[in-house]
Amino acid sequence: METPEKIRKAYVEYVLENGKQPISVFQFAKKLKMAEADFYTDYASFDAIEADVWLSLFNDAKATVEADDTYQGYSVREKVLAFYYTWIELLKAQRSFVTYSYGQLRSETMAASPIAKARQRAGRQAGTSRVLHPFKEAFVDYARDLLAEGRESKEVEPRPFLTDRYPDALWGQTLYILDFWVRDVSRNFEKTDTAIEKAVNTAFDLVGRSPLDSLFDLAKFMYQNK
C-alpha cells in the first residue's frame, strides 16, 4: 500500500472510531510507525487528508462516467445527471466518513463569527473551505467544459453577465444535493435520486433557451431596424 493511501485509510478509521481528528500529527504518525516528517511529505495537515478524500470521490465519479461509451453520446443534461448518480453511489460506500466530514464543516459554519456567517451567505464559506476547495476547483473545471459543450449543442443559452456564473451555480447545486443526501432517510436514498433529477432538469431549463430569450432577440432586432 502506498504511503498516501495508508495515511488516508488510517485517518478515516481514526475519525470514525473516535469522532474527531487525532490530537497531533506526531501521535498519529507514531501510531502508523512512521516519522512525522514522512507524514508531511504527503499531507500538510489532517484537513488536507479530508480534502484529498473529497477530491478522490469526485475524480473517481468523473473517471467512471467518462469511461462509459454511452456517456459520450449523452446530452449535457444527461451527462450531469449521470455524474451525480455515480457520485452519490460512490459516496454511499463511504457514507460514515462523508457524513462525519460534512457534519464538521456545518458545525464550523454554525460556530463562525457574524462576519464569517455573512461570508457564508455570500457563498464563500462552505463552497471554499479548505476541505472542499480542491473538490470545488475540479468540479467547476468539469462544469465549465460541459457548459461550453452545451453552448455548442445549443443546450445552453449564452447570456451577458450570467454565462460566466453558470459553473458556480452548478457547484451550488452540488452542495444542495450533498446536503440533501446526508439528511436523506428514505429507503436506498430514493428521495435523493428524485432531488437530483429535479435539480438538474430545473437548472438546464433555466440555462437553456426560453421565451424570454426570443423576446429579447425580437426587441434587439426591432431596435436595430427601427
Question: How many strands in all?
Answer: 0
N-end to C-end Cα span: 72 Å
Order of helices and strands: HHHHHHHHHHHH
Share in helix? over 70%
Whole-number tally of structural domains: 2
Poorly predicted ranges (pLDDT <50, ≥5 residues)?
Answer: 119-127, 211-219
What does this entry look like structurally?
The chain is mostly helical. The protein has two domains: about 1-45; about 45-225. About 75% of the residues lie in helices and about 0% in strands. It has helices spanning about 5-20, 25-30, 35-40, 45-65, 70, 75-95, 95-110, 115-120, 135-150, 165-185, 190-205, 210-225. The longest helix has 21 residues, at about 45-65. The protein is elongated.
Write the layout of secondary structure elements.
Layout: H1 3-18, H2 25-31, H3 36-42, H4 46-66, H5 69-72, H6 76-93, H7 95-110, H8 114-121, H9 133-152, H10 166-183, H11 190-207, H12 211-224
Helix pairs in contact: 1-4, 4-6, 4-9, 6-9, 6-11, 9-10, 10-11
